[in-house]
Design goal:
Length: 198
């Protein structure tokens, strides 16, 4: 059952990632990794005492779990999302600005699209802190940067959905207006884009 594969570092690393993924999926504190390790060691000590030394090399500290989730797993998710986005034939964006409990303005950006196989992708692209102001230009710039970061050019969106704040839907300087101007400059028929706001 626990053969020589446990002696390989790659197997131990895989085990650490598996525990980190479980902790993230269950939305548990990162420090629960230490409880998992203690539990594993207690079980192995009673069931397979000769293998207990192998399990002591598994590091499930709060810092290690945090590193695996925040950097490694999230980077893999971002790459997967970017690959899905690059396969979209058409897409629509939804974005809204909100203020959190600490009075920080945040912009949420969602994408929904269809690929050549008619598979629907619906994902949150990003939540961005809007540092200083929440003018239409600031929101537009944040959206533009997010799309560039995710390798999504301003191709042909089929729709835009936003909240009704003036910074988003303002007639002259709202983020939607600035986005439509940018698309128009690229020769895209902006009259074909379906726009909804609350």
């Amino acid at each position: 059952m626990f053969g020589s594969s446990l002696q390989q570092p790659s197997t131990i690393v895989k085990a650490i990632y598996s525990v980190a993924m479980l902790i993230a999926k269950k939305i548990k504190p990162f420090s629960d990794g230490e409880l998992v390790k203690d539990s594993l060691e207690a079980v192995i000590k009673d069931v397979l005492p000769d293998k207990s030394k192998l399990f002591s090399s598994i590091i499930l500290s709060r810092q290690n779990i945090c590193h695996r989730i925040e950097e490694d797993i999230s980077a893999e998710i971002a790459v997967t999302l970017r690959d899905k986005i690059n396969q979209l034939r058409v897409y629509s964006l939804a974005f809204d600005e909100s203020t959190d409990i600490s009075d920080t303005s945040q912009l949420m950006i969602f994408i929904r699209g269809l690929n050549d196989s008619f598979q629907v992708t619906e994902e949150m692209l990003n939540i961005l802190n809007l540092k200083d102001t929440t003018r239409g230009e600031d929101v537009f710039q944040a959206i533009e940067n997010c799309l560039a970061k995710n390798s999504l050019n301003f191709g042909t969106p089929s729709g835009l959905t936003t909240g009704g704040a003036p910074a988003l839907v303002g007639k002259n300087k709202g983020a939607v207006k600035l986005l439509m101007d940018k698309l128009g400059c690229r020769g895209i028929k902006i009259n074909d884009i379906f726009i909804i706001h609350c």
